[in-house]
Write a structure and sequence with these properties.
single chain; TIM Barrel; about 15% strand
């Protein structure tokens, strides 16, 4: 398959500046990893210039080998017992009031890393009591006991990405299971947690498949949904099948809202943690009094 040329709307500016350097300095000092770096996120410079970052715990080596992902796979190290404290301190130094934390998949650990997750969340909460904590977890092999270990530590938002339509799972993420991921999201939603998921487009999915996936998510309790363009990280990864124009992302956004999501962010450069704070704030904003009055009249 001939490599597609990247279109104009995927070219980004690099703001950089002192804020960006501050984030880099704090991360290096505390030996922390970010998905911004490891997954080569196109929004890294923009987010770091706003002093936001998506922290990645449980190391930087994944036990799975998804063909769309830039995070390296291979032999892992034991979880760092100092990581929860370092993470909490970094969030305090950056004065974050909204922190997004994700992880590599750790199928080598008996609990998938759940106990380490819980320790990180508790430490961040203790050191930063006013900070909203959004987490983006692996599928934990579908183990709801391990999921409950994480949920019992009290995150504010539980995210888990479906990544693509089920037909493409054998090609893109063969070690994952579509229904297992939906069940994990449903379990969190049934426990009254705000849940979130997301997908990439451009791997060869059909519009009808995307619409079915969105309906599946809504039926399993997902409230927030993100849609972005797949970008090939390296020559050994899956090639881009199609670059979708911005207006098609807008159509998918509207379809998602019609399907029943409470919030949808959709665009070529969107990633699951992009503008996460804005989504949370919109869903938790007080209902305008004029709206309440109108409801009473109707």
């Amino acid at each position: 398959m001939m490599e597609l040329r990247k279109p104009e709307w995927l070219k980004i500016s690099l703001p950089g500046g002192m804020q960006c350097q501050t984030v880099k300095s704090v991360l290096q000092r505390h030996r922390l990893h970010t998905v911004c770096d490891e997954a080569r996120c196109p929004n890294k410079e923009e987010c770091w210039s706003r002093k936001t970052a998506t922290f990645m715990i449980l190391g930087y080596v994944c036990t799975r080998n998804c063909r769309f992902c830039a995070v390296r796979s291979g032999k892992t190290l034991p979880p760092d017992p100092e990581e929860p404290g370092a993470l909490a301190e970094a969030i305090a130094l950056l004065e974050l009031d909204y922190a997004v934390i994700t992880c590599v998949t750790r199928d080598d650990l008996p609990d998938g890393g759940a106990a380490h997750w819980a320790a990180c969340i508790r430490e961040v909460r203790k050191r930063n009591p006013g900070c909203i904590i959004e987490i983006l977890i692996s599928d934990l092999k579908g183990n709801t006991h391990d999921l409950d270990t994480i949920l019992d530590s009290g995150p504010d938002v539980l995210g888990h990405n479906l990544e693509t339509v089920p037909r493409l799972y054998p090609l893109a993420r063969p070690q994952a299971d579509y229904r297992r991921s939906l069940s994990l999201l449903q379990h969190a939603a049934e426990r009254r947690f705000l849940t979130k998921s997301g997908i990439m487009l451009g791997l060869g999915e059909e519009p009808e498949e995307v619409e079915t996936l969105m309906k599946d998510c809504v039926e399993h309790g997902v409230s927030i949904f993100s849609i972005g363009q797949y970008l090939q990280p390296g020559r050994l990864h899956l090639p881009v099948h199609e670059y979708l124009r911005p207006e098609r992302f807008e159509r998918y956004r509207n379809a998602g809202l019609q399907a029943g999501f409470r919030y949808v962010v959709s665009g070529p450069l969107v990633r699951s943690s992009y503008h996460a704070k804005e989504a949370f704030e919109e869903l938790h904003a007080p209902v305008p009094k004029a709206y309440e009055k109108q409801k009473e009249i109707s």
